[in-house]
Specification:
Elements lengths: L10 H4 L15 H4 L20 H4 L5 H28 L4 H9 L18 H11 L4 H19 L4 H12 L5 E4 L15 E5 L2 E5 L13 E4 L12
Parallel strand pairs: 1-4
Antiparallel strand pairs: 2-3
């Protein structure tokens, strides 16, 4: 049986990726659970308050999912809530804080384990984002978008050189990704987008307009939604 994840007493000191091998290859949670092994010095009484998790604790989640929530709650109480008000006043987001989240694996939540992600399901990931958003919605939004773009590079791109250049740095949040879908004339209606990508030798020429890109002007890698064939039915 999986042992309980111990609470982080100091994230910068205790958050690390365990090199232990999983004890069972039959449990799909075993591999990434080992990445959340922390100091065994913490006691049960040192867990953060989990009153807000009462419904989840009785809502059919398994032990590991609950521990992920506790891990996210500890990060929220330590690294997000104390600073969120000031960030709002300054109209900024702390990318250093996002890098701290990456130390817990939050930069590659549903990236495949073979590429050093945690390999979580969308449900597991949502449980974590739900807790983080209670501390700072803006920071959590950037982390969710970043995870989506990292997943796109992991699953949808076949260029191994691109993966080697960017994926691990994205998982570490050293490089941040943005998702470029929204256009001025249609919002986020993907079926109506007009931006095109025309092949020119080894490159594509992008033509079009995008708007409301989260992390725009600050992030490093931009995944742009475009049409490679303008003659294809827009509903496809």
């Amino acid at each position: 049986m999986l042992s309980r994840v111990r609470r982080l007493s100091t994230i910068s000191k205790h958050a690390h990726t365990s090199k232990l091998k999983p004890t069972s290859t039959n449990n799909h949670h075993s591999n990434y659970f080992q990445k959340f092994q922390f100091s065994q010095q913490s006691t049960q009484s040192s867990y953060p308050s989990i009153g807000s998790l009462a419904s989840s604790l009785h809502g059919g989640l398994d032990d590991l999912q609950i521990e992920f929530q506790k891990l996210a709650l500890d990060f929220t109480n330590t690294e997000l809530k104390p600073y969120a008000k000031e960030w709002d006043k300054q109209k900024c987001v702390s990318y250093d804080t996002i890098k701290k989240a990456a130390e817990l694996g939050f930069g590659g939540l549903y990236i495949s384990e073979e590429n050093n992600g945690l390999g979580l399901s969308r449900h597991d990931t949502t449980l974590i984002f739900e807790i983080l958003s209670q501390g700072c919605v803006s920071t959590t939004a950037l982390i969710t978008i970043h995870n989506m773009t990292a997943w796109m590079l992991d699953k949808l791109h076949h260029d191994q050189d691109l993966k080697e250049e960017y994926l691990q740095r994205m998982i570490n949040c050293e490089v941040m990704g943005s998702y470029c879908l929204t256009e001025p004339h249609c919002g986020s209606d993907a079926a109506a987008l007009r931006t095109t990508a025309k092949k020119d030798g080894d490159y594509y020429i992008i033509s079009g307009s995008k708007a409301f890109i989260s992390g725009g002007g600050k992030n490093d890698v931009y995944f742009t939604m475009a049409r490679t064939d303008p003659n294809v039915d827009n509903t496809r």
